[in-house]
Write a structure and sequence with these properties.
Layout: H1 3-9, H2 14-72, H3 76-107, E1 112-125, E2 131-135, E3 144-148, E4 151-158, H4 161-164, E5 174-183, E6 188-190, E7 193-197, E8 204-209, E9 214-220, E10 239-243, E11 246-253, E12 259-265, E13 272-281, E14 285-291, E15 294-299, E16 308-314, E17 327-328, E18 338-342, E19 347-352, E20 355-365
Antiparallel strand pairs: 1-20, 2-3, 3-4, 4-5, 6-7, 7-8, 8-9, 10-11, 11-12, 12-13, 14-15, 15-16, 16-17, 18-19, 19-20
Helix pairs in contact: 1-2
Length: 372
């Protein structure tokens, strides 16, 4: 509407005055509305400015973090150098493994494998249902040792197998009180020294001089002690063994599916020489023994049955479980709490529900070529 025309036409007219008042009021109303819109726009402008400043600060922070990460990230050349170094280390480790295996093979040429187990002989019955007995496998040694039960600090020493097997009650040649109690049934004597799992420790092995009963060395076996080595002998966590190649210890590793792990030890200072992860399971196993670097695992049932060798692991990769038949123990339904191989006598010294039992081991020549 053209307000100036209306004013001219209504000059000196009372209606014109009324129109002037109306126009003035409308102008005021429009002005007030415009001021309200301007105020709203100012508020919105402040909010937008605040949001832009916040976004700008975030962008700057992201840029700083990206710059930090770029400075921290190694250059491509550094990554390539690290990969090359890692590859060299892996190859060196593999070469070291091959050298160790070759060294074990060369130092003691041992090329026999288990053929069968026969000639069961129950030598005596004494002590608890569980225990361990064995003959010192050192060359020229004749003494026999007995440790009854799953935990004690006493070892009985006999002059020979003959004196131990006497039908009449013959006192032991010597009673040795150990400085610390033993646990389980996996101990053994080698060259006049007792190697055993120290009670109340997960994985400590002690070496005790039986001539004076003192501890001469000890070690903690890596990864051992979290699982019984055999599920049918729940009190034994470390099982010591001796064969033609030296001193070993067997344990089960829960991080490896409960499979058995074979460790070669230095008989002098108990240093770990090498470790093999095997495919043999601890489930339903009652014991194991080693012949010429091959681990033979004995399985049974919870109720006692006919023991069988169903899994083996050869450190030289010349014998495999899939190619070897199951080996049965002589026909008798029982269970074993310990089994120890004597490389000189070619016999197994087993503890059979309180009976001290001998099994004759027959071997064959193993002329297989190691796998590459």
């Amino acid at each position: 509407m053209r307000y100036d025309l209306l004013l001219n036409n209504c000059l000196y007219d009372e209606a014109c005055e009324q129109n002037t008042v109306t126009i003035t009021q409308k102008t005021y109303d429009v002005s007030s509305e415009m001021r309200g819109h301007l105020s709203t726009l100012n508020v919105m402008r402040s909010e937008v400015r605040s949001q832009l400043e916040s976004i700008s600060a975030r962008v700057e922070r992201v840029e700083r973090e990206l710059e930090y990460l770029e400075n921290k990230m190694p250059a491509q050349s550094d990554i390539e150098m690290e990969e090359a170094l890692l590859e060299q280390q892996i190859k060196a480790a593999e070469l070291d493994q091959l050298k160790r295996k070759a060294k074990i093979k060369v130092e003691n040429d041992c090329n026999v494998a288990l053929s069968q187990i026969k000639s069961l002989k129950m030598v005596k019955k004494m002590g608890d249902n569980a225990g361990s007995w064995f003959k010192d496998p050192a060359a020229g040694a004749a003494k026999v040792y007995l440790l009854s039960g799953i935990r004690n600090d006493t070892l009985l020493e006999y002059a020979s197998l003959q004196s131990f097997s006497e039908k009449i009650a013959v006192p032991p040649f010597k009673v040795v009180r150990l400085p610390f109690s033993w646990q389980g049934t996996g101990h053994l004597v080698y060259n006049g020294f007792l190697y055993y799992h120290k009670a109340d420790t997960p994985n400590q092995i002690l070496k005790v001089d039986l001539s004076n009963g003192t501890v001469v060395d000890s070690t903690l076996l890596p990864g051992a002690g979290r699982l019984p080595v055999y599920s049918l002998n729940t009190n034994t966590y470390l099982d010591m063994a001796v064969d033609e190649l030296g001193l070993w210890v067997i344990h089960a590793d829960p991080e490896y599916g409960g499979n058995l792990v074979l460790t070669k030890l230095d008989k002098g200072n108990l240093a770990v020489e090498y470790i093999w992860d095997t495919q043999c399971k601890s489930q339903d196993a009652e014991g194991a023994f080693i012949i010429c670097g091959t681990l033979y695992v004995v399985y049974n049932t919870h109720y006692g049955g006919r023991s069988t060798v169903q899994c083996l692991y050869d450190i030289h990769d010349t014998i495999h479980s899939t190619e070897s038949p199951v080996v049965f123990f002589p026909k008798r339904y029982t269970s074993h709490s310990s089994i120890h191989y004597h490389p000189g006598d070619k016999q197994l010294y087993a503890w059979d529900d309180g009976y001290q039992t001998l099994y004759k081991v027959e071997t064959r020549i193993n002329d297989q070529i190691p796998d590459e």
